[in-house]
Amino acid sequence: MRSVYGPIDSWRLKRSLGVDLISQKGRVCTFDCVYCQIKRCQAVTSKRQKFVDMDDLREEFDDALEIVGDHTDYITFSGMGEPTLAVNLEEGIKMVNELSNKPTAILTNSSLMNEKGVRNALKGLDYVIASLDAGDQETLEKVNRPDKDILFKDIIDGLKKFSDNFQGRFALEMMLIEDNYPRISDIAALSREMRVDEIQLNTPLRPSVVPPLEEEKLQKAKKHFKGVETKIVYQEKRTDTPKLDEEEVIRRGRQR
Ligand code: SF4
C-alpha cells in the first residue's frame, strides 16, 4: 500500500497531495465516528505507534513530487485514520519540509492535542485543520465514539494550548450532522476561547451511513461564528486534478 496519494481536489486545500503515516488496510484511529467515510475499522486506540518506515516514505514522496509536484498546492498529512497517532509524525513533517517548498497541512481530529509531543510536531506545519464536533463529553461519545482514554476536557485543553502558540494558520472544523447540530452554540462558545483563524463547516457529502445536513442548516450554523472567516463545504469549488493512483484515493474515502 502506498503512503503518498492524490492529489485530491479539496474544498479547502485546493490540490492536496496526501501523506499517510498510518497506511494500514483498515482505519486506525482514536475515534470511531458515526459518520466515518472509511468503512473498515482496524483499531480504535490512543497509543501512538510507528506504522511507516521513514526511508521508504522519503523515496515514495520524492517520486510523487516528480510526477505530480506541479499539480500540488498543499502537502497534507491525513489518510487511514488519525495522523497524530504516528509517533514519527514530527520526523515526517521535517522530511516533507526538506524535500518540498509546498505549504504543509494536517487534518487531525484533535484527540491527542493535549500531548506535548503532538503539539511540538504540529508546529512544523503551515496549516492545521483540527476537528471539534462536540461541545461536551456526551456529544463526543455519541458522535465520535472515542477510545476510552480520550476525554472531552483534555481535547479542549490541548486545542487551547496549541492554538495560543501556533504561528501558522489554525482552522477549527465541525462535521455537522443531526446529532450535533442542536449543540452548535456550545461549540461556537468554545471556539471563542481559542485563537482561531478560520471555521470550516462540513457535513458528510461523500458516501456515509449518516446523511448530510442541507446547506440551509450550515448557513444558519455560520451565524454563530460572526467575525471569523467561515467556509461551508457546499460553497467551495473543486478542481479535477490527475491522480497518482485513483484506487489509493478512494480507499481513504475522506472528504478533504
Ligand atoms: S472520521 Fe476521521 S476521526 Fe472519525 S473515525 Fe474516521 S478517520 Fe477517525
Description:
The structure is a single chain. This protein has about 260 residues and is α/β, with parallel strands linked by helices. The chain has a single domain (about 5-235), classed as TIM Barrel. Helices cover about 30% and strands about 20% of the residues. It is built from eight helices and ten strands. Strand 5 (about 75), helix 2 (about 90-100) and strand 6 form a beta-alpha-beta unit. Helix 1 runs parallel beside helix 2. It is globular, with a radius of gyration of 17 Å. Bound molecules: iron/sulfur cluster.
Strand content: 15-25%
* First and last CA, distance: 20 Å
Number of domains: 1
Largest sheet: 8 strands, mixed
Number of strands: 10
- At the first level of CATH, the class is Alpha Beta
Describe the strand arrangement of the main beta sheet, using strand numbers. 1-2-5-6-7-8-9-10
**CATH superfamily (homologous) name:** Aldolase class I
Q: Which geometry do the CA atoms define?
A: globular
**Run of helices and strands:** EEEEHEHEHEHHEHEHEH
Enumerate the distinct ligands. Answer: iron/sulfur cluster
CATH A-level architecture: Alpha-Beta Barrel
Q: State the CATH topology.
A: TIM Barrel
How many helices does DSSP assign?
8
Given as residue ranges, the uncertain stretches (5+ residues, pLDDT < 50) are none
Instruction: Look at the helices and sheets and give the structural class.
Output: alpha/beta
- Rounded to an integer in angstroms, the radius of gyration calculated over CA atoms is 17 Å
